Amino acid sequence: MTALFALATSLLWGLADFGGGLLTRRTPALTVVVVSQGIAATVLGVIVVATGAWGEAGDQLWFAVAAGVVGPVALLCFYKALALGPMGVVSPLGTVGVAVPVGVGLFLGERPGVMQVAGIAVAVLGVALAGGPQLRGAPVQRQAILLTLVAAFGFGAVFALIAEASTTITGLFLALFVQRVVNVVAGGLALYASVRRGAAALPDGTFPWRALPAFAFVGLADVAANGTYVVAAHHGPVTVAAVLASLYPVVTAVAARGFLRERLRGVQAAGAGLALVGTLLLATG
């Protein structure tokens, strides 16, 4: 169960990041965050009302609030980094954030076995190589790297926080709803401040209605990934769930190859193979 849901998290996050990166190339990153998360919050609000999840409210929701504050900052940095591209600059460094939930798991007493430790090391190395790291070049690439590191640790913090925000399925719906509402509020305030400073909130001053399905997909895939990660973390060691969920850069890199024709180099193919080997070690360990 842990491996299955964690790998589903990687797939969903990888596709959401790919879609968010494409949208940010045409629309300001803050607008992408607010609109996509707003759609997700609306859908979750309907689910919360339909399931009566309000009855699960408690002090643990403060973890969801904290995740909602950290999340927009991480998303904004990541989308801006993806827009600076190519995605091969950004995606491999996204794995650095896995250190946060893995560290939390170790602090709480989890002790992965030898096979799992080997799987963690191989998988993280594989993901880093699969992204095709490009650490040399113009200043814009160094800016992308810095933004990605900030985003990675932010995502890692969200991993750890949202896993503590609920213990039941209905509670998970409520926690994700609260997280998304805070996301929208925090992102909306940042967008308002940006507009007051003279930045444009929309390309050419008009909303790209044709891109609305893409906004919806990004927001809903992101929230679904959060949900599958929580399930994975509750059914097995956080150290294993976090590492398997961190494989999303491989999905982003493959999507970039398939849709944008970004060339995969030998190191990327080798990295994808290592990521697969690490996944098998984790799943069987």
UniProtKB/TrEMBL annotation:
<protein>
    <submittedName>
        <fullName>EamA family transporter</fullName>
    </submittedName>
</protein>
<keyword id="KW-0472">Membrane</keyword>
<feature type="transmembrane region" description="Helical">
    <location>
        <begin position="267"/>
        <end position="284"/>
    </location>
</feature>
<keyword id="KW-0812">Transmembrane</keyword>
<feature type="transmembrane region" description="Helical">
    <location>
        <begin position="238"/>
        <end position="260"/>
    </location>
</feature>
<dbReference type="Pfam" id="PF00892">
    <property type="entry name" value="EamA"/>
</dbReference>
<dbReference type="GO" id="GO:0016020">
    <property type="term" value="C:membrane"/>
</dbReference>
<feature type="domain" description="EamA">
    <location>
        <begin position="144"/>
        <end position="283"/>
    </location>
</feature>
<feature type="transmembrane region" description="Helical">
    <location>
        <begin position="214"/>
        <end position="232"/>
    </location>
</feature>
<feature type="transmembrane region" description="Helical">
    <location>
        <begin position="144"/>
        <end position="163"/>
    </location>
</feature>
<dbReference type="InterPro" id="IPR000620">
    <property type="entry name" value="EamA_dom"/>
</dbReference>
<feature type="transmembrane region" description="Helical">
    <location>
        <begin position="113"/>
        <end position="132"/>
    </location>
</feature>
<feature type="transmembrane region" description="Helical">
    <location>
        <begin position="61"/>
        <end position="82"/>
    </location>
</feature>
<feature type="domain" description="EamA">
    <location>
        <begin position="3"/>
        <end position="130"/>
    </location>
</feature>
<keyword id="KW-1133">Transmembrane helix</keyword>
<comment type="similarity">
    <text>Belongs to the EamA transporter family.</text>
</comment>
<dbReference type="InterPro" id="IPR037185">
    <property type="entry name" value="EmrE-like"/>
</dbReference>
<feature type="transmembrane region" description="Helical">
    <location>
        <begin position="169"/>
        <end position="193"/>
    </location>
</feature>
<feature type="transmembrane region" description="Helical">
    <location>
        <begin position="32"/>
        <end position="54"/>
    </location>
</feature>
